[in-house]
Amino acid sequence: MRPRVLVLRALGLGDLLAGVPALRALRRVFPAYEIVLAAPQVLAAPAAACGAVDRLLPAAAPGRAVPVRLDWTGPPPEVAVDLHGSGPSSHLLLRRTRPGRLLAFAHPGTPEIAGPVWRAGEHERVRWCRLLEWYGLPADPADLRLPPPAVPSPAPGAFVVHPGADSGARRWPAERYAMVVRELLRRGHRVALTGGPGEDGLLERVVAGVGGAPGSALRVLAGGLPFDRLSALFAGAAAVVSGDTGVAHLAVAYGTPSVTLFGPVSPRLWGPPPGTRHVALWHPGPPGDPHGREPDPRLLRIGPEDVLKALSDHPEVPGHDESRDRREPDRRGGDTARAS
Fold this sequence. Notes:
seven-stranded parallel beta sheet, five-stranded parallel beta sheet, 2 domains, about 30% helix
């Protein structure tokens, strides 16, 4: 049996994609090891797409809690890595697998772990790379791009608008998304409206706000696309508009121009890399509750005109004529973003 590295990150899609640089660092350092990722089963496809995970060990808990147990079998892992949180619950969960080494942040509840200090205001991609660097494992926070999907896009060259989010605090009102979609259609663009499982009603409210029946220029992709089709849609889009949720990270992973609407959480913590390709719209202020039921006041300060201006001003977003063509893959390398 190959030696194994067990990595705990039992969270959502955005969390997984933000952890890709750290996972790839582990792949480079342990090329002959089997890397096992403890994460929800629904993330098996994106975990495989990142090229750094050999096997997914299903593990999940409500919200962002630490799973109660791991169904680990066979010999203990040679290395266990806590990419889930600051501890100590996640530390103790991994300790129960009896790893040869446990890489984690320091916590008073597990004083035997001499890891680095947790920094509350640190960007998620940087945080986990810093953890590995502390243990002498080189890691690059910019190593986050995914390879091109193997399947064709269901709506190549469309503007993708994703109004959903895991919590109401990060969900911009449906009527405002409808205003953005209506104006994009008026300008002659094609639009693909997407939602996750259970968000069909939200998509219906957006469509109702647009007015008229969806036609060839507006595709409604309801029900939650499987990951291969979702990734192909985002990789081949003209641009992506969404809130601060998992699909925003997917746009970054494929280098697709994007406009992301932030509310309770600053883009300094979860936002795109710096530059011009990915625009983060945000009004500074005290942090809010990212899991609240109602839209955050900072999020509501963003208007449809702000989103449309960000798209119009974007140096890589096509105008009317180009929007009907398939978007060419970016071959320049690297990602850019602009915070505003």
